[in-house]
Amino acid sequence: MIDILKKYMSDFTSMSEDEQRAIAESLQIGKYKKGKYLLMQGNISDIKCYFVLMGCVRQFFVDESGKEVTSNFFTEEQAIPIINEKTQGELSKYSLVCVEDSILVVGDVTSESTMFNKYPQLEMMIRKMMEINLGEMQDQLCEFISSSPEERYNIILRQRPQLIERVPQHQLASYLGITPESLSRIKKRMKNSY
């Protein structure tokens, strides 16, 4: 697992092997069972961020009618956006829950500040990773908004095919903005067209 982090440090920084090892050894790694909530909608947000080493985490909210709406899935080598200082002490607008048993790097503002002061390139690496993550999310949102449900499903097949097998059908349908029945019809039409 630590090799994944070292890969990122090598790709985004010129830190020495010793610095990479020291950072990797000082990180907090959390193991979470399937169904474990990292954050619950309506609870007070603390300042945490996560990086998925293994597993899948779902971001969702419950709308006014009581319906769960899935807004994202985070899988291996993806950062779960930082709950920033602006939202500290406020009620969270969404929940984060492990869809699978997961291993995550857990960060908080206090430890990050200390690490950034000690290893300035680490802050640059995190910023680059978050910029890439934000850019990808913006592209996906644009593509999703302008797509039909069938096109959205094709996007998932093309960009994140592992989600098809890893997440429950009703959660995937919610993420695509359709009902589970509509998703079944789309899958059936696509299967019959091959």
TrEMBL record:
Q: Where is the Cyclic nucleotide-binding domain?
A: 31-105
Under what name is this protein listed?
cAMP-binding protein
* InterPro entries found in the cross-reference section: cNMP-bd_dom (IPR000595), cNMP-bd_dom_sf (IPR018490), RmlC-like_jellyroll (IPR014710)
Write down the species: Solibacillus silvestris (strain StLB046) (Bacillus silvestris)
UniProtKB keywords? Activator
**Keyword Signal on this protein?**
no
rRNA-binding is among the record's keywords: no
As recorded in UniProt, coiled-coil segments are none
